[in-house]
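== Fold encoding ==
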Amino acid sequence: MPGQNGISRRARRSFGKIDKILEIPSLIDMQRWSYERFLQRDTLPEKRQDIGLQGAFRSVFPIHDFAGVASLEFVKYTFEDGKYDEEDCLNKSMTYETPIRLTVRLVVFDTDIANSTKSIRDIKEQEIYFGTIPLMTDRGTFIINGTERVVVSQLHRSPGAFFDHDKGKTHSSGKLLYSARIIPLRGSWLDFEFDHKDFLYVRIDRRRKFPVTILMKALGYSTKELLRYFYDTEIIKVEKKGFWRETKIENLYQKRITKDIVCPQTGDILAKKGDKYTKRLHKAIKSADIKNMPVDIEDVEGRVIVNDLVDPQTGEVLVSGNETLTSEILKVIQEKGPAEIECLVLDKQGVSASIRDTMLLDKIDSTDEGILDIYRKMRPSSPPTQEVASKFFNNLFFNVNSYDLSKVGRLKLNYRLDFEVPLEERTLRKEDILATIKELIQLKTAESIVDDIDNLGNRRVRAVGELLENQYRIGLVRMERAIKEAMSLHEVETLMPHDLINPKPVSAVCKEFFGTSQLSQFMDQTNPLSEITHKRRLSALGPGGLTRERAGFEVRDVHPTHYGRICPVETPEGPNIGLIVSLSTYAKVNEYGFIETPYREVEKGRATNNIKYLSALDEKDYPIAQANAPLDIGGHFAEKEIAVRTKGEAGKTISQEVKYMDVSPDQLVSVSASLIPFLEHDDANRALMGSNMQRQAVPLLKAKAPLVGTGIESVVARDSGISVIAKRDGVVEDIDSSRIVIKSSDGLDNDEPEVEIYKLVKFKRSNQNSCYTQKPIVKIGDIVKKGEVIADGPASELGELALGQNVLVAFMSWGGYNFEDSILISERVVKEDIYTSVHIEEFEVVSRDTKLGKEEITRDIPNVGEDALKSLDESGIIKIGAEINSGDILVGKVTPKGETQLSPEERLLRAIFGDKAGEVKDTSLKVPPGVQGIVINAKVFSRRGVEKDQRTLAIEAEEMHRLKKDLHDEMSIIERSVREKLGSILIRKQLKSDLRDKDAGYILMSANKIIKQKDIDLIPIESWAGADLKATMDVIERLELIVENYSAKVDRINRLFDDKVEKLTIGDELAPGVIKMVKVYVAVKRKLSVGDKMAGRHGNKGVLSRVLPVEDMPYFADGTSVDIILNPLG
C-alpha cells in the first residue's frame, strides 16, 4: 500500500512485546570499515595513522644499504583515479583497481671514518608509480578479472600471553603440566613449560627445550637477582650462642615454634616450644618489640642461601649462592663469629622451588655465556661469535623490524600481567618475560584456572584490511632485499629513486592474495541473503589459522562468550561445522579485532537508552539481564529478582545489581537465523538447516515477500546492495525500466548535483548464473527521502527480502507420494509460474591473431547452410530476441587453416571456387548441449585501431542515444530549477541599463522594463550574470551566485558526457593477440519440475516427487484446492 509520500510500501504490523532501542547497524560495515582503514584514501598523507598501507610502508622504510652510505626514505603515497569503473571491469574481465604513486627520498651520506660521523651529501626526492591496488565496491566486494569476490574475515588466536595445561595427558601419572606461551603478531614464539619433575623449560619457535634460567641469564639477570625476584627472603642471624630468625608473620604463620620465646623486658614466656605461630602471638611479639626469635640448628639446616658465603679471614667461599646449608657449614660459621645469612623462604604455602631447582641444571654464569648457549641451540650449524650471537638474540624479541607484538598483543599482555605499558611498545621487554614466568609458577602452585583459548576475549577477527596489510608487508620485504642489492652494486650517487624501486614483487603478492588465497572467495550471489551472509562470515581456517583435520570439538563448540557476537545457529553442516561461523545481527568488530555487542546501560535498577558496546573481556564481571526482562513505564525492572548472565553462567540477582541489559532478542543470532519467524520454537538442528537453506533460494520471476516476517527483511534488502537506495531527498521526475531520474530538493547554492540519475541493472548474470535485475517501485511525482528503496532487486518486493512464495500447504498423506521428504505440488503452481526462475548463461568467443593469419568473426562460414545462419546478423553475431537450442550457432567464426594433404572433394571445391574455400575452417561458437533459451544481450569488444563491424556501431549508437537522453534530462531539470530560482528574486524588479547578449551584443531586455516570468524563461541564464538591477546588494549577490553555480554545473556535466563518449568510441584494451571478443547472454526460463529441492524457513526440506493436476489436489469446503502437500510426520 502507498506510504505518506506516495511510494508503495507493504503495511506491516509488529506484534513484538519489546520496544526497539537500537537500529540494526549496516550489515556490511565490517568489510568497508576495515578496507577504508587499510587504504586511508580520504585522509591527508600527513594525518595518516601508522596502520594499513601506511603502517606497512613505515615498517619497511627507511632502507639502508650495507655500507651505510645511502638511505631510501618513505615520504607519502597518493592514489590516482582508476582507468575503469565497476561496470567496465565486470564487462571487460578487468580488475577494479587504483594506481598508487609513492613519494620516496634517496639520501646519500659522506662518512668520516676518522671521527665516525656522517654528513648528508645529497637528497633526491621523487614520485614513483608503485603498481595498482584493488578497490572495494560500495557493496563490500572486489572485482578481480571481471568476477566479484569477497575476502572472508579470519578468526584467529589473538597475540599475547596464554597459560594452559596438558589436562594430565602427557605423563603417565596424570599430573597437570602447566605451560605458557607468548605469541606475537610477527616474530618468534616463546613457550614455557614444566616437566613432570617440576623443572621449568623454555622453547623458542618450538625448537629444542632448555632450562628457562639460561634465557633469564641471557636477558642480563644474575642468579642473585632472579632468586630475589621469584622468592621472598629472610635474614638468619648466626651467633655462637645460637640461631635467630626474623619474626615475619607471612613466613611463620601456623608453623610450630622450636624454642621458647621469652619477653626481654619481663622475662615471661610468650610461647612455648611446639606452639603454633598465630596472629595473637604475633601481636604479643610486636608489643614486646621482638625482632628475631631463637631457632634450632635443624630449622636452618637445608635452607637455600642467596649470596655466596665467604670466610671473612681467608676470603674462601664456604657456600655458593643457591646452595643449601649443611650442619657442618653452620658449625663452621658459628665458630667464625656472628654472621647474617640471607635465605630463601621455600617452606611457605603456595611457593614452588621450580626456579631454584631449574637453576641447578644450567651451568651458565654470565649474560654472554647465556646468549652464546641460546645461539648454539637455535643455529647448531654455524660457529658462534659473541657479536653475532648478541645481534641474533636481540633480533629474536627486541628488534622492531623482526618482532611485533602489535597493539593487541601489548593490550592482552597488559591485561593478563597487570601492566600499564603504552600500546606503542610493540616489542617484548625483559619484565614481560619475567612476569610471564612468575604468573606461570603462581598458576601451577595455586592450581588456578588456565586461560580458555575458545573465549572470544582470546580470539580476534582479522578482516580484509589486516589480511592484505600482512601480504603487502611480505611483498615490501622482498622488494627491500632487491633494493639493498641494487644499492650495493651501483654507484648510489648517480641513481634516482626510480632506478632502485621495482614494484613488481608487491603487485605479484597482492594479485596472488586476491586470486588464490583461501580467504579470497568467489562471491555467493545466489540471492541477496547469501551475498550478505558471505560478507559477514568468519572463518577459523586459512593461512595462520586451523585446519579441518586438526580442529577438535572444543574450538567448534558454542562458547558462552559467543552470546550476541557469533551466531550459535548458523554454521555449515559437515567437516567445517563450527569453524565457519557468522557475525550476530548487532555485533561489530572494534579497532583491536575483538567482537563487541551492544547493551543498554542500567542505573539503579532502571534501564536507560544509553548503548555501550562491550567485548567478551569487558563484560565478564557484570550481571547482564535479558532483553525480555519486564520493565514498567519508567524503565525500571518490574520484578525484584532478575534472570541474568554472569561470566557466561545463568542465574538470578536483585535488580539493583544489574549493570547492563540486552538490546534485542535478535542480537543473539545472525541475519539468516533472524529471518526465521518463531525461531524460539524451532529445534536448534532444524533452525541451522533453515538458515542455511534460505541462502540457496533462487530468485523467482514473481517475488513475493512473506506474509509473516520478522522485520529484518527490509534491512537485508537495504544493506545487501541489490536494491537502489535514494542518495538524497527529492521528487521523481522521469522513470522507465532502465533508469530513475530524481530532482533534488536541495538548492543550487551547494555543490551537490541538482539531478540524480539512477541506472537500473537489467538482466545481468550473477556469479551463480541467476538473473540480477532491478525494477522501479516509485512513480513520477513521488517524493522520496534519503535512504529509501526506490527500485527492487532480485528476490525483493517493495523493499523487502522475498526469497519464496506464500502458498497454501496441506499436511496429509497422499497415496505414499509424499513419503518421508517427498513433496507433491499442484499443476497450477507450475502453470502460473509461481516458482519459475530465470537463469542467464554467458558464452564468450575471441578472435585472435594466429601464426597462420587472423581469425575472423563473420557470417560467411564454409560448409554451413543458410538455415543455420538465419538468426545471425550481417556481422555474424546472433540477434537479440532469437530463440536458441543446443547446437545453434551463436557467433560465426573462421580460423585460417594450415596447408594439409587435400582430399579429392576439397580439390574439386578448389578447382570450382578458387583457393578461398580451403583456407579457413569453421570454429564458430555454438550452444552447448542441454541449453535452450532466448538471447537477451550481446556485447562486442574490439581492439583499439581495428575497424568496427556493423553490430559494434549499432551498440555504440544505442549507448550514445542513452547518454544524450541522460544529458538532455539533466540539463533541462537544472535549467528549469534555475529559472524558478531566478523568478523568485527577479520578478517585478527593473533593470538600470539594457541587458545585452554576451556574444552578439544585441539587446535582450530594455532598461526600466519590469521583469516578468516569461522574460526569465526566454533569456539565456548566462546573460543574467552582471545584469544592472535596481535592487539591493543581497539580491545582486544571490543572482551572481545562482548563475555562477549553474555555469559550473553545466561545465561539469558536459565534461563528464565528453569523457563517457570518448570511452565509448575509443575501443577496448584486450589481452595480447586478441582482435575481438564477443559475449552472448542467453536467458533460460526454468519451471519447477520433479527432482527440484524445496524448503521452508524452519529446516523442513524435501524433493518434488510429482506434479498433480489441480482436480486431484485436496480441497476445502469452498472448493479451494491446496498448492502443496507435505508429509504430516516429522
Q: What stands out?
A: The longest strand covers residues 117-134. The chain has 29 helices and 59 strands.
